[in-house]
Amino acid sequence: MTPTLVREHLSPAGPTLRVDLGARARDWSEIQERMLVPLYEAVYERLEVGAGTRLLGLGCGSGLALLMAASRGAALTGVEALAPERLALARQRLAPEAWGTRARGGIRLVDGSPADAADAETPAYNLVTAFEPIGCLAGDSEGLGELLSAATPLAERGAPVVLVGWGPPERCATASVLRVATRLADPLRPAGSWRPALRDDLEEVAQRAGLRPDGSGRVACPFGYAGVDSALKGLLSTGLFDAAISATDQAQVDKEVTEALHPHRRADGTVWMPNVFRYLIARVP
Asked: Which ranges of the chain does DSSP label H, i.e. alpha helix?
């Protein structure tokens, strides 16, 4: 049995957290990642992802979005620099023996930046996706901008680049739970706590990266969980509560997030939070 990895790492707010990164990655891949499946499906359908697609997935995590593109026959390169534990799960998930078929163009997973995915033998990508939603943490758009600056030189002219953001708070029931992170981490708020999404977040990122906006859409992505414990694990796996944990402690965050989830608990014990996410299609000049 592989020993549990417990590592100290810097939260977005600065103080050191002690986190079981392996367990967090499993919670992400088993509970939270699937919440954005309707978004992946909508984007792939709109852009007609298929056998002719050469996709570069930024921040690919544990690989569910890549798996869905592979099932359509796309050739894939996934890049993940911040969560090697998630990437290890992606390697397991995308192994041919794990899902019984192969992407026609092959699958490549890279631990590093988009620059590390550069390969003279690989044709230019005709689709770039950045499915990690922005508009939730202060400063998250800057990190996305850096990724795009490194990725767009690898894409062909006119290739679509897909950016994703949280919808307006009034359309996202999960916003009421995420506000717990803001309140608990208040002294550290400028450094990385939750903030409400702004209308033009995606367009501003695209324009700063030199991309040309070319359409957008909204997709309903409800967060549904088997129970409060499952919801707590899933939400904490996002890392959005790390600043709050640094400012208080794990027990306090667990308690207050659990309390915030109660209005969303249904009679059968499940938790259901309707949300809307927005995507922007921008083009490489």
From this structure: 21-27, 37-46, 64-70, 84-93, 96-99, 140-151, 175-184, 201-208, 228-236, 242-247, 250-261
Question: Bridge partners of 76?
Answer: 55, 107
Are the C-beta atoms of residues 188 and 241 closer than 8 Å to each other? no
What's residue 3's pLDDT? 35
Q: Are 109 and 84 in contact (CB under 8 A)?
A: no
Q: Count of CB atoms within 10 A of residue 92's CB?
A: 12
How far CA 210 is from CA of 4, 104, 149, 197, 203, in Å, comes to: 43, 31, 9, 22, 11
Which residues are paired to 276 by β-bridges? 220
Tell me the one-letter amino acid at 257. Answer: V
Of the listed ranges 69-78, 123-132, 134-143, 173-182, the least confidently predicted one is 134-143
Q: Read off the DSSP letter of residue 180.
A: H
Neighbours of 281 (CB within 10 A): 21
Does this model's pTM top 0.85? My answer is yes
Angle (CA) 120 164 134, round 5°? 105
Place of tokens 């593109």: 69
Contacts of 94 (CB under 8 A, 6+ apart): 63, 66, 67, 70, 76, 78, 107, 109
DSSP, residue by residue, 48-86:
T-STT-EEEEET-TTSHHHHHHHTTT-EEEEEESS-HHH
Q: Shortest CA distance to 270 belongs to which of 237, 231, 222, 232?
A: 231
Domains of the chain: 11-283 (3.40.50.150)
